[in-house]
Every structure is written in structure tokens, then in C-alpha cells.
Amino acid sequence: MSKTYNSLIKEKSPYLLQHSTNPVNWEKWSEKILLKAKKEDKLIILSIGYSTCHWCHVMEKESFENIKIAEIMNKYFICIKVDREERPDIDSIYMDAIQSMGIQGGWPLNLFLTPNKKPFYGGTYFNKESWFKILINIIEAYKKHKDKIILSSNNFSKDLNRTHDEKYSTKNKFSISTLINEIKIKFDYKEGGISRSPKFPMPNLWKSLLFYSLENKDKEVYSHVIMTIDKISEGGIYDQIEGGFSRYSVDEKWIIPHFEKMLYDNGQLLDLYADIFKITKNEKYLHIINNTINWLKNNMTDKSGGFYSAIDADSEGEEGKYYIWKYHEIEKILGNLTAKACKIFKITKEGNWNNHNILLRDYKQKINSKKFNKITKKLLLERNKRIKPLIDNKIISSWNAITLIGLLNCYQATNDNKILELATKNAKFIKDKLITKSTINRVYKNKIGGFLDDYAYVIKSFIKYFETTQNFTYLNKARELIEETIKKFYCSKNKLFYYTSNTSEKLISRKIEIFDSVIPSSNSIMYYNLLFLGKIYDDTLYLNIYNNMNFKLEKYLNNYEFMSNWIHVNNLNKSQINEIIVNDPSNKKSIIDKINSKYIPNKILIHNKGNYDLDILNSQKINNKLSISLCRNKVCQLPLKKISELFKTIKYPILG
User: Fold this and answer.
1) Quick check: 1 pLDDT over 60?
2) Gene3D superfamilies in the record, alphabetically (predicted)?
3) pLDDT digit string (tens) for 322-369?
4) Does 1 reside within a domain?
């Protein structure tokens, strides 16, 4: 019997295509279908998810593939599917709506809207029985109490349009010491991270706290950061045989992952582990970096140079099936290596999850690299025979830029040219394939315009690429893009940037994204970009916008966890940005590489060869001998003749 398809079969999104065979008459979000809802006075079911979401799969099988449920949905509702990764603007607005109803957010996100797109009820995952009852109840309520539903939806929409000052401002004076003391109370001093489960890696939080701890010589915070990244790398959340990190751990010990692997997590974690390796030079972190980059190259890299979005948690309809092991499987595969493997990876006959083993790592168990590689190679060869989880092959601008930043920091930390080759191919792909003139596309080969996070992260990645390679093409492109971002996204009244551009589709709310989550907020990344490009180009406009954002944010900086990147950038600036100018007519890349190999996140690094027109270089003299200038706040010290003198001058404890 041939399959029947709904209208989603015409789409490119893997998530929308997954639902193209449902008996539900799903439609893509579009002006045409929204006008149809108004014309027919039908309620809208808005269902938002993404292709690698486990509970999205479960609800699809239970409810959206059910003929009886589909008939009700098709008869009484306009049913719209949205891929949250393609349309984060829609997702963020309606996620806010759910939370304003007092419901915890997550995916799948299912809402009921009036014909004019206003939400009045919703939730996340519903089992089949609950979903059926909700459908019937809402149909009856709309018949009998339409006025009340309209009133309720209007109230929720008003709440969505309240200003951030109304919602979040505080009269408390910003105090970094108070925020640090508050975050310390939340530390899980036994298992690392924050005391809660599930546990997300939150790499930007630890990146921010790492710099704070070194700048302020706070050993307690530094030790907790190191313990956290060690616990993560020892747990099941890290793929011990192939590399790559899962999205979160279900338990507080990092043992049981939610098995999906997201590009943005891995990009940020590469960045964090590179920082730690710069500081410690511990080979353990180098192994994790190399393993994760190999996983990225082998599984997530398109031939074009772009990186795919995610790998599913499920295979063959079961969460984690691809990754877990029975004890007898290990015995059969490894033979006389079994005993050693069981010690290294904490494998037991009973298992640690549903009679299976999720591989962990015990670094106290010593093993030479040759034997370790033999064990992991055998296990990986066997695992590769299994049916693999689905890969979401969307190539998203902001997530690629996040990963590019991580790769560049890994190259700086390791000086491994293979990493730089991968990063350079991706940087060129972003510049040539995701950007048209000064306009960024959200997704490769898709006409969706970029959002603020796409612009912000691409700009930041190009700043990082310039710092690493001294290729001025990318610095100039970063400036071109920041000009476009100010023009399209900046709100002079609020002194912040809208998430959508002034040419984007008009939704029921135009959101300003402030709070950092698993991914730092787009405004906080712009805060960074404005500071660094403002100093490089001595641009008054950029620095004025930065200062206005800084003044505005004093009202919101009352929670370290959700403002971690804002506080990080603020701390970078307060520590004084080190403007390092290498005056050298030769093209000695090794000088730049040596400086970049040190942990100096509060730096601007320029190799002055005498042929660049930057105000920052005007006072610099070029002759046949190497000299290094160190400037802070437009005050320069006497030129230094050796790199070692520079490292002594920048007095970080880790530079000794």
C-alpha cells in the first residue's frame, strides 16, 4: 500500500519531513495558512519540536499517527508544525506564552491559538488519552465560551508584550561578589555542576567562572570549574569511545545521558576544554578535544564545510540503543582485554542502566595509549554495525559559528594544523555560502532570513578567526556585519537588539532576548562584539552602544547563572583589555600562535606588518626587529623585545 503525504512533504526540514506521513493535515507556518484559520474561524494547533527530540517522536507515534485523533484535529483545527531550529522566533514567543501560563517549558511544545495567533492553552508532551480529552474539551469550550477564550488569549498576548523593565528589572545594585556567593550556594560540591537533576553542561557558565576565578584568585570557584569538567568527561554524558557530548544528564552524577548530541553543545564544550588545556596542559583534556573533533569530522561535517545540527537520541525506536552494552557483548568483542576494559569504563555484569552498561571513565585506572586505542577501536567497529541514530542535516548559521569559535580555540591551544584546516573550511563556508552581501541566512539552502543569534555568533566567530589567523578579510567582514546588525536589529529606545530584524515577519510580539541559557543570549554576544570591534576600530558608535547596554543591564544582573555571558564580558572589560600589537615585517605565524596558546581571553591581538589601516596601529613603528607593544585603555607600555616579557607583564597566575 502506497504512503499518503500531507503538505509537509514539500519541505526541507528533517523535522517537518518526519511528520509528512502523519494522517494529520499538518501545514507549515505561513501567511496563507494563518489567513485560512481567520477566514474559517478555526482554532490553531501549533506543534513545535525538532528532529532529534525523543518525546516529539513518542507523541507522534501515540497521537499524531492515530487515525481517530487525526480526524478530530483535521475537522476542527488548523494544524501547524514548526521546526524550532528553523524558526526560533516563533518558538521563543510561544515558549514564553506557555511559561506565563505557569507551565514548565520544553519540547514538544503544543499550543492552542485563536485564529489571530494568540495563545490560550498549551503544554509539552501529552499522552494519547490526555491529548484526546484536551481536543474534545477545547472544541466544546470554543463553542460555548468563545468570548472567554478570546479574553484569555488577549491577556496572555499582553503579557508577552510587556517590556523587560516591567518584567525583570531590580533595584538591587549590581555586585559581582554577591552573585558569586549566590552561585556558590548552588554548587554541587560532590558531583560538580549545579545541584539539580537533570544536569546540563552549561559550558558558558563555567567559562565565565573560570575567568572570574583566575582574575580574582578564587581557588574555590576554580576548583569547582575543574571538578565539573572532569565529572562531565568521566560520565556517560561524554561518549567515551567516539567523542562528543550528549545534551544533558538525567541524573546528578552525569552517568545517564539524554543521548541526543547537539552541535551547539559540542562547539561550546570544545571552547571550554581548550581554555582548560591552555591553562593546565593536561593530556586528558587534549584527548577529549581530539576525540570530539574526530567525532565532529566523521559524523557532523558536510562536504561543503558546514556542520550538521544534531544526532538523535533514538535508534530503532529506543532511546540510547546505539550506545549501550550488555556485559556478554563486551566479553565477546574484547576477549582477554575485557577485564581491563571493565575497569577503565566501569562495566559490570549488572549494568548501570536497564541491565545495560553506559560507558563511564575511571582515570585512576592507568592504561597505555596503545592498549586503550585497541579497546576503543574494537568497540567502535562493533558499534558501527548497529543502526545509527538519525542525523539532522540542517546547517544553521549560529550553531556553525559557535562550533567555529570552539575549533579555533582548540587550534590555539594545540597548534594542530588539522584542526585549523577544518576551522578554515568552515569559516570559508560561512562567509561564502551562508552570507549574501551583508545578509545572513538562518539555514543553508533555505530562504529563512537570519536572526540576531546568527548575526551575533557569525561576527564573533570572524573576530576569533582574525585573532587566530590574522586574515583581515574576516575582520572587515565582521565590521560589515555589525553595521548591518545595528541597522536591522537595534532598538534605540530599549538600548538593546531585537531578536528579529526590521524585515522579518511580524509576529504577535517582537522579542528582545536577554537571558543566557544553554546558549548565551544573542544580546550578550553582541555586547562582546561591540566591545572588541569598538576597541579594534576605535569606533565611538560601537562603544556607545556597548556602554548603553552596560548601563541598561545593571537592572538585570541579579542572577549569575542566567546572566553568565554578560558578566563574563563585563569582567573582561573591567580587567582591562590587553591590546597586543606584534610589530614585525616578516610573516612569522609562530609568534601569533605562541601568544594565542596562552590563556588570555581579554586580549586583542594584531600582527602589524605595516600595511593595515587601523587607528590602533598608528603609533606603532615597524623596523627589521621584532617588538611587541602592550596597550590598555589607549596607554601603551614600552615595546617588549621577547614574547616571554609579554607573558611576565600580563600577570595571570597561569602564565608563570
Assistant:
1) no
2) 1.50.10.20, Glutaredoxin (3.40.30.10)
3) 999 999 999 999 999 999 999 999 999 999 999 999 999 999 999 999
4) no
Bridge partners for 627 per DSSP = 583
Report the C-alpha gap between 494 and 636 in whole angstroms. Answer: 36
CB 36 within 8 A of CB 70: no
The C-alpha cell that represents 1 in the structure block: 500500500
| Predicted confidence (pLDDT) per residue in 375-433, tens digit | 999 999 999 999 999 999 999 999 999 999 999 999 999 999 999 999 999 999 999 99
pLDDT of 176 higher than 50: yes
Query: Residue 118's domain is classified under what CATH number?
Result: 3.40.30.10
Look at residues 170, 154, 176, 8 and name the one whose alpha carbon lies nearest to residue 79: 8
Structural contact between residues 234 and 241, judged by C-beta atoms closer than 8 angstroms: no
Is 229 in the same domain as 358? no
Pairwise CA distance, residues 71 & 75, whole Å: 6
Mean pLDDT calculated for residue range 137-144: 96
Q: Is 270 inside a domain boundary?
A: yes
* DSSP assignments along 200-231, one per residue: ---HHHHHHHHHHHHHTT-HHHHHHHHHHHHH
Q: Any bridge partners for residue 113, and if so which?
A: 44, 119
Cα–Cα distance for residue pair 585/589, rounded to 1 Å: 12
Examine residue 170 and state whether it is found in any structural domain, yes or no: no
* Count of C-beta atoms within a 10 Å radius of residue 151: 11
Element (H, E) at 249: strand 248-249
Residue position matching grid coordinates 481567520: 38
Range scoring the smallest mean pLDDT among 158-172, 291-305, 478-492, 495-509: 158-172
Identify whether 470 is part of a domain. Answer: yes
Contact 312, 52 (CB under 8 A): yes
Partners of 111 in the beta sheet? Answer: 46, 122
Please state whether the peptide bond connecting residue 201 to the residue before it is cis, i.e. omega within 30 degrees of 0.
no
Name, in order, each residue with C-beta under 8 angstroms of 391's C-beta and a sequence gap of 6 or more.
299, 300, 308, 310, 311, 312
DSSP letter string, 500-553? S-TTSPP-S---------SS--HHHHHHHHHHHHHHHHT-HHHHHHHHHHHHHH
Same domain, 562 and 597: no
Q: How far apart are CA 493 and CA 480, in angstroms?
A: 23
Residue carrying the nine cell digits 509537509: 8
Q: Are 605 and 465 in contact (CB under 8 A)?
A: no
Domain count of the chain? 4
CA distance 443 to 646: 42
Among 583, 596, 590, 579, smallest CA distance to 630 is for: 579
* Three-state DSSP class for residue 601: coil
Sign for the pseudo-dihedral over CA of 561, 562, 565, 570: negative
Angle formed at CA 106 by CA 102 and CA 110, multiple of 5 degrees: 80
Q: Give residue-wise pLDDT tens across range 234-278.
A: 999 999 999 999 999 999 999 999 999 999 999 999 999 999 999
Most confident of 61-65, 553-557, 648-652: 61-65
Has residue 655 got a pLDDT over 50?
Answer: no
Supply angle C-alpha 612, 616, 620, rounded to 5: 75
Write b or e for each residue in 91-110: b if 16 or more Cβ atoms lie within 10 A of its Cβ, otherwise e: bbbbbbbbebbeeeeebbbb
User: 442, 440, 409: which is closest to 423 by C-alpha?
Assistant: 409
Euclidean distance between CA atoms 332 and 335, whole angstroms: 6
319 in Cβ contact with 259 (< 8 Å):
yes
Q: Residue 342 sits in which domain range?
A: 323-385
pLDDT of 493: 92
Q: Give per-residue pLDDT as tens, 22-37.
A: 999 999 999 999 999 9
